[in-house]
Protein 1
Amino acid sequence: MKRRILIKIFSDETKGGKDLSLSKGLVKFIFISISLFLISFTFLLYHFINYNVARYKLNQYVTENNYLKKKVKALEQKTALLDSTIDDYYHKYTALATYAGVQPVPYELKNIGIGGQIEEPPTKDLKPVVDLDEKIRKLEKFVDIQMASFQKIENKLERDNYIRSHTPSILPCNGRFTSGFGMRHDPFTGRMHFHYGIDLAAPIGTPIYAPADGIVKRVRRTKGGYGLMLEIDHGIGITTRYGHLSMVLVRPGQKVKRGQIIARVGNTGRSTGPHLHYEVRILNKPVNPLNYIIPYQSFFD
Ligand SMILES: [Zn+2]
């Protein structure tokens, strides 16, 4: 015999209650139905919530995306502006490089970039971002190359400036030119003799100026020859000598600047009258000092 389940229902209308007899199968069916309903409901609720969260996120992404698109456009404009500024700056750079005697980096390098694989955008819509990135990287590389070149220009200008400031270029004293560089009759013996410098006659005490920057190499006093003599090392293989001095105002090892008073004209040593004997030597070989005097140049840079 099938077992049945008896449910007694009490209410105000039915005194003593009402019996409800249900088969076990029916109860099972009802139970399964309610369970299925609850599972379905939970499932739908879950998806409903998920859908709404996704919709919310989607709206957020759309807003963000629109914002980013605007930003990319603005960055594209700024990059284009930067690009033309780099062009202006390149013209100034080439002028400076030419002035310094440095080969400027070719303009074509601007569009060469960094090489390697060109990045593929995840979607076609993102191509402007990849292009922008590529453009910025090219400009960055071009600026880096120019920075390295600027370093070369700076070094070259510094070197040139050093050479310029250390090359004798002015008349060391205001005097009358009495004897030149080369063969001449010796004023004492009358015999032909090589004169290694120039002579500038001037009253005793006339100031003598350093013709370029350098370091005092030595101060020497001899009875004959140069008399009281001063030698300056200009550091680029050039030395200068000053003979027959009455006074030396600097000491060995001291740095001197072009235009600085270093000594005074005298009549010491093998001299026939107050004058400065001035020599310029390259690697200790005497050269004509007149080639190291720029006419009308001021004493100071
Ligand atoms: Zn002389």
Protein 2
Amino acid sequence: MPPAERPHDPRITVIQQELFDEKKSKVAKYQDLVVGRPGWGALLGFELVTLASWVPGALGLFLRGKLYPLVLGRVGRNVVFGVNVTLRHPHKIAIADNVVIDDQCCLDAKGTDNRGIVIGSGVFVGRNTILSCKNGDIVLDDRANLGFNCEIFSASTVRVGKDVLMAAYTYLVGGDHLYDRVDIPVLQQGRTARGIDVGDGVWLGAHVVVTDGSRVGRDAIIGAGAVVVGDIPEFAIAVGTPARVVRDRRSEGAAAGGGPQPPVPGP
Ligand SMILES: CC(C)(COP(=O)(O)OP(=O)(O)OC[C@H]1O[C@@H](n2cnc3c(N)ncnc32)[C@H](O)[C@@H]1OP(=O)(O)O)[C@@H](O)C(=O)NCCC(=O)NCCS
């Protein structure tokens, strides 16, 4: 059966087109893709703040704690930025209290008419993790815990619920490529996005992939290495590719005489 036709979403940023647009100056491209705001003031402010990104040790933590809020949309109390945290379109990034953004993370809120990235209180974002918007939005709700080397891509809306535990190397792919035509490469066929919702209390095991348009119900567990395609019911345990439900946690809890347990925080 041929794949269902989906229209190209022209709002999704295509980086190659932006980078090699000959009508724009290098400065204009940098401002569009990195700073996100026009004017020399915005550019200079961004450049000065970025100087703090590579400063090591306690001095770096102190400087970033003071300087990053100057370009970010909103920053609460006790927010820690590790070394080499990259910001893109920082004015569209809002961060609540008691948040850790670990070393080498990239917070990219790029887009022309998106709201950007919202990070709730108590969230931990592990090192090397990339939050990447292409004109989409990413919401990490309170106390979500993202392990090392995760990626969240959004060309629509990707939400990670409260108390979600995302193990290392998980990838939420909140966008897709069209591939109906066979006369030109997939790369040239346009983009589409439906978004992803990961419900409160979910545990995604290491190396899980969640494809665009999927919904993981609250308190579900997805086994290591699974690929989620579509909907997973709440409290389910699902494993494999594509992820299939192997049991319901509530029946286990009932059998053991207890209710559903919250996930244990990971490394
Ligand atoms: C899914 C998981 C929680 C176990 O769930 P469970 O319901 O207790 O699973 P069981 O061990 O009873 O296994 C049920 C079936 O699923 C299979 N299975 C379990 N985990 C699997 C996985 N990750 N991938 C594929 N199959 C898996 C088992 O082999 C078993 O198959 P069988 O019925 O044919 O024998 C666990 O295997 C897992 O993947 N944990 C994630 C670990 C992780 O990534 N930690 C990172 C630190 S935060």
Protein 3
Amino acid sequence: MSGAALRKRLLRLARRHRDLVERAAGAGPMVRGSLHRVETRCGKPTCRCARGRGLHRHLRLTWRARGRSATRRVPAPQEPAVAGLTRAWRAFRSMRRDLAALEAELRETLDRYAEALDIESRKRLGLGAGGAPTSADRMEPSEKPPRAGEDLV
Ligand SMILES: [Zn+2]
């Protein structure tokens, strides 16, 4: 791909990157975790659940924090709201993964762009093909590269 084509691609990736970051910045409330319906025994010896006449059903929010799993009971009236908030969390994480993939593509394209500009500039100036030096490109002992800090004359 030519330098000009890669430049276009870079700018397109940069616009997509900006769009994604703006969407992320515009995120609303969200809650980490997932909702599960569970059936439990409450532990009271006199309860119906202890006598095998039906367990208690409720909703449970489960999430991981600092490497540990945590849960909290969600009251039934809050179910729709919490379900929406956990969906918002998952959507955000998905967007975050898209952003990471885009950033990897951006870095790779930057490297290819630099390569293309190097090749095109060398061609224009007759400086050889670039890349790994061939035997024809080996330096004469008299033309050692300047050390860092030394000026080129
Ligand atoms: Zn019970």
